[in-house]
Fold these 2 entries.
Entry 1:
Amino acid sequence: MMEPKPAIQNLIKNLRISLFLTLFIFIVEIIGGFLTNSLALLSDAGHILGDLFALGLSWAALWVSTFPPNERKTYGYHRAEVLAALINAALLFFIFLLIFYQAIKRLSNLEPVKSIPMLLVALFGLGINLLVLSILKKGSGVNLNVKSAFFHVLGDMLASIGVILGGIIITLTGYRIVDPLISIFIGGIIFKGAYSVGKESLDILLEGVPKGVEREKIESLLKGVGGVKEVHDLHIWTISSAHLALSAHIVVEEQSTHSTKKILDQIKEILSQNSNITHITIQFECICCEDSGPECIISG
């Protein structure tokens, strides 16, 4: 079930605030990374760039979800989210390669790092991350897009903690090798995010069964509805991360259209209780169809 419009507008507002706060961290860490010569800070800024895309994607997806369907876009504009996610994954993968390349270069030629300013910038970034997390936390429990953005920022907070620990170690020991090692660690976090976003986007485009949905379980639930004799041509796919769809052929005993409506209502109730499937299309077929042909089909 979709959130009421005022709730969506509130989520959009929170995402917009989070987006601008994250943009501010990105600018500070880019400048701080160059001034302190810290590859770890620059790597964290690259990670934050991915967060900016994730927040922007979530913001845009919620905004676009308020657009009504039209004659040309009968599902609305929800798939714009998937295209943006693919671009996000490609950019994250490029950032990972760049970080990894720069880290390998620096491991073979360690450079001095201004650890105290590096530590201060990382602490500032951590503070902003905590503020953004507090803004997104409430919405993460009711909307999948906000939940995704929440975990992106959570990953960035962990990366900031890594930079802080690196700054402390360099300050206390002078071990400059810690800086490129931390950047490799952050690069690994970025790669994991790129792989996850890219895989999920491709699954959606290939009409795969949505993550967290078990086709066998759904089929079993449908077969358990009173009056249902058989289920076939069952398809479950994703329109967007917050909109799942299902279509199926349901074989029932010969009965009136009114009776099949009762079965359809039960199916909708069961699916609403056990999944996030919101678009349901059922075609009913009576047992007599095997002898009488397609004219016996009832649409529901």
Note: The chain has two domains: 5-205, 215-299.
Entry 2:
Amino acid sequence: MSEFIIATNNKNKVIEIERILSPLGITAVTAGERGIDLGDVVEDGDSFAANAYIKAKHAFDLCHTPVIADDSGLCVDALGGRPGIFSARYGGEDTSYLDKIGLLLEEMKDVPDSERTAHFSCAVCCILDESTVIEVEGRCEGEIAHAPSGDGGFGYDPIFTVNGKSFASLSAEEKDERSHRGNALRMLREKLMQRSM
């Protein structure tokens, strides 16, 4: 294996992806690190998988080298599955995650513990060449806490809990083991391994 372009500007995602795929000898780099400007991509798909493909295809058409893109988000049962595919834009395009978390907790202030179930979902699209597209999707079940905790992770990690611990309070290895992205990337790793056998 070799270098893969990761179609994101989120350095945390790049680190997670490389951590899980590095046993295959994959080095994860952003397009920017290779001097390629991906510009803004209109993510107008109706699912995580559709948006992951849109991002991957856009990057592949510009880079002409293997690319990986993911689209992920938080789906809260008490909010009818919101924010879902709009997780990054929840509360507005330029809203910080601190504010997004505040908005979500405000929406859920009257929701009892028994109804605070949620899941993270992550769709990953890997385009190796013109005719090879690999798509996988992982998810992780959990609950929404009443307040943020932990100083690790990113995004909604401080309020998403599994067995009483927020994703932001887990070590990188613990998070990889349980997370939606970890689950999806292990599936991708398996499929890439099968191709190289």
Note: The longest helix spans residues 180-196.
